[in-house]
Amino acid sequence: MMAGARNTDVLYSAADVRSRAGRLLAAPGGDSLAFNGDHALNPGSAASARSPAAVLAPIVARPGGATVLLTQRSSKLRKHAGQIAFPGGRIDADETPLAAALREAQEEIGLDERFIKPLGYLDPYLTGTGFLVHA
Questions:
Q1: Are 134 and 121 in contact (CB under 8 A)?
Q2: What is the pLDDT of residues 51-73, one digit of tens each?
């Protein structure tokens, strides 16, 4: 699909997404050794340092069906400039992954947590740049 184009077929409503997520997504699991990551796609590529990070994968209920909200990072940033991403960032020492994801969503896109209903958690993902990302 071209940029800016819209698919008019509704695949899942917001209620469908909530129902499916409740059955399929895990509870928060912590820092498991059995996580997915860049190392699985490119053996030998995983960074040794693990900086904890968290992202929110916002599913937005719209009249035409559920959509996923992504951001484009500023081209002026020192790290990850211009990338398309979920809102998120580093987990502070006193935070849970959920608290960090909610804080970052507020800071980056102004999404107030009163509009967020967590549905579940994805497996942590280790990036080649050393972030262990919780979603």
A1: yes
A2: 899 999 999 888 888 889 999 98
